[in-house]
């Protein structure tokens, strides 16, 4: 029912733009922004190494499609990393708070 969605961005400003949109539109209850993660990956046949910003988005399973659509519309990358992990357990009061902060779908 609840999910953590991970998404990297090239900089803090793009992460803040996306985070604010998700929270303002009640798609996410909370977005943590972690500065300076190092990403090593292959892109267009070449190994890349970049400093990125990681967003940790807390929401519900039912809102994933809307979150993915909104991130894709706002994200500067051609292919945005958007990965959802189901929350198996958590503080009941915190999970109830997530419910109260997001749109019901």
TrEMBL record:
<dbReference type="Pfam" id="PF03091">
    <property type="entry name" value="CutA1"/>
</dbReference>
<dbReference type="GO" id="GO:0010038">
    <property type="term" value="P:response to metal ion"/>
</dbReference>
<dbReference type="InterPro" id="IPR004323">
    <property type="entry name" value="Ion_tolerance_CutA"/>
</dbReference>
<comment type="similarity">
    <text>Belongs to the CutA family.</text>
</comment>
<dbReference type="InterPro" id="IPR011322">
    <property type="entry name" value="N-reg_PII-like_a/b"/>
</dbReference>
<dbReference type="InterPro" id="IPR015867">
    <property type="entry name" value="N-reg_PII/ATP_PRibTrfase_C"/>
</dbReference>
<protein>
    <submittedName>
        <fullName>Divalent-cation tolerance protein CutA</fullName>
    </submittedName>
</protein>
<dbReference type="GO" id="GO:0005507">
    <property type="term" value="F:copper ion binding"/>
</dbReference>
């Amino acid at each position: 029912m609840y999910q953590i969605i991970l998404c990297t961005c090239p900089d803090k400003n793009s992460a803040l733009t996306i985070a604010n949109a998700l929270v303002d539109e009640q798609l996410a209850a909370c977005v943590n922004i972690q500065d300076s993660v190092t990403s090593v990956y292959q892109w267009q046949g070449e190994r890349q190494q970049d400093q990125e910003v990681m967003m940790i988005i807390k929401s519900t399973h039912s809102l994933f499609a809307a979150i993915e659509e909104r991130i894709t519309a706002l994200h500067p990358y051609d292919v945005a990393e958007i990965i959802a992990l189901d929350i198996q357990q958590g503080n009941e009061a915190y999970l109830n708070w997530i419910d109260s902060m997001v749109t019901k779908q």
